Amino acid sequence: MTALPVYPWRLAPEGLATVRQLRALGLRPAGQPVVAQLERPRRRRGPLVAFLYRIDLARPVRPMTPARWAALAKANAARRVCPECGRDAGYVIPSSLGMCVPCADVPSALAA
Questions:
Q1: CA-CA distance, 33 to 28, in Å (whole number)?
Q2: Fewer CB under 10 Å: which end of the chain, C or N?
C-alpha cells in the first residue's frame, strides 16, 4: 500500500476537491478512492485532515425522488414529537433532554 500525498492547507493542486467542495459543485465521489489529503496544523492537537478526490471522476448528485422527500419529512417530524406528552414541540427535541423543554422542566418545578 502506498502512502497518500499530503498537501498543506489551501495548497492542493487543481483537479482535486474535498467532499464538501464536490457537493458545492453538484457532484459526489461515486466510490472512487481517496487520492490525497490536506492537513491544517493546529497548536495543541494533531492536524485537521481532509481527504481529496478527483473532480474528473466525480459523478452528479442523485436527485431527490418524491419518496425520498416523503421519508425525510416523516423522519424530521418524528424528531419533533415529544415521547413524554406526545405533542409536536415545534422544534427538534434536544437529545440531551430526550423530551420537550416543558416536560423536562416539570420535575425541577415539582422539586422546588
A1: 12
A2: N
> Which residue spans within the chain are E strands per DSSP?
6-8, 16-17, 27-28, 36-40, 48-54, 59-60
With the C-alpha atoms ordered 40, 41, 42, 46, is the resulting torsion angle positive or negative?
Answer: positive
Would you state the cell numbers that stand for residue 63, as one nine-digit string?
Answer: 436527485
- Which pTM was predicted? 0.68
In angstroms, the CA 57 to CA 54 distance is 6
What number of residues does the chain have? 112
Q: Where are the alpha helices (DSSP H) in 14-98?
A: 19-24, 66-78
